[in-house]
Amino acid sequence: MYDLLIHNARIHDPATGLPALAAPTIAVHDGSIAAVGCDASAAARRRVDAGGRVLLPGFIDCHTHAVYAGDRMAEHTQRLAGVPYAEIARAGGGIMNTVRAVRAATHDQLVAASLPRVRALAAEGVTTLEVKSGYGLDHDNELKMLRAIRDIGERVPLTIVPTFLGAHTVPPKTDRAAYLDTLIERTLPVVAAERLAAAVDIYVEGIAFTADEMERLFAAAAAHGLGVKVHAEQLSDIGATRRAAAFRPLSADHLEWIDADGVRALAGCGAIAVLLPGAWYCLQDTRKPPVALLREHGVPLAVATDLNPGTSPVASLLAAMHLAAHAFGLTPNEVLRGVTVNAARALGLSDRGTLAQGQRADLCLWDIPAPEFLLYQLGGIAPPRTFINGVET
Known about the structure:
Layout: E1 2-7, E2 10-11, E3 26-29, E4 32-36, E5 44-49, E6 54-57, E7 59-61, H1 73-80, H2 85-90, H3 95-104, H4 107-123, E8 126-132, H5 139-153, E9 159-167, H6 176-193, E10 199-203, H7 211-223, E11 227-232, H8 240-244, E12 251-254, H9 260-269, E13 272-275, H10 277-282, H11 291-296, E14 301-303, H12 317-326, H13 332-338, H14 341-346, E15 363-366, H15 373-376, E16 385-388, E17 391-392
Parallel strand pairs: 1-5, 2-6, 7-8, 8-9, 9-10, 10-11, 11-12, 12-13, 13-14
Antiparallel strand pairs: 1-3, 3-4, 6-15, 15-16, 16-17
Helix pairs in contact: 4-5, 5-6, 6-7
């Protein structure tokens, strides 16, 4: 007796390619996929007639900064006028504008401000969502952010995967060595003890942290049993990816400036390359990630929103998917893999992202002619039915 049987569906598993699987039935038991292509007359406690709709795995947005307070509309206007992001950041804007808003917000205000963004992503079929801290930039406020992320995860049906990004940038008028000491010696032990994050991230860039500092933070994260991720090669090539590879990161993200040595290092360590076309678009960048080189070396590609208030105020994974195809040249199957099976790998998750037996039953039914339609139409699309852990939301 299955818990749920969905029949009369056009089942597409991005892990194996876009053509529909031969059998139109999928069965769920105890929150997991029990069978694909089983007999449509099999016994089940609940039966759903898909009506010929497309069935896909739930989407995974594997890189976001969705929890924050305030906005940065004024900076957006500056960038439209031609002011570079790095110049805005050096003048005290950028990340620090959001840091001031987050520090001023209470826990409850932070949760209330962020929930609508999380729900907007969920409405588009996102069933697993990574969310980073990084706008507190001191011990108390980084923990406040991570606890707000945990609280949001208890209020929504989708899975929230928290990431500790205390090393987002060095706060002004702060000794950088002392700040890194605080992150490693004071904050990281609390994060690990309270299980407030699954991984540790760092922004390595001329306006943020160095590769030497990254190596020290990654060594500390590993000692606490936490995975590592890196914002790398977004604005320049300073070798962050090459040096991060020694720590076997889950992912390296952005990568507009990565060189051939960096790509080879990614391929050798098995990390996922997370492409963030929303940030590329909003920053009006002209340099794209070297997709052909990443393909040549067999580096798996993921796609995410990078939802944040400054450089990618994009609360739509479908928009990021559209941009990945139209601006970065990813094929439909690359994009679909990039928000399912490869996105799961970027978060260290092996129990979702495909439609195989034993996988978590995070499923979406789409009223579209084919999966490629999701990259064709920009806006106005949402799955009429979503199942998370086998339960309809």
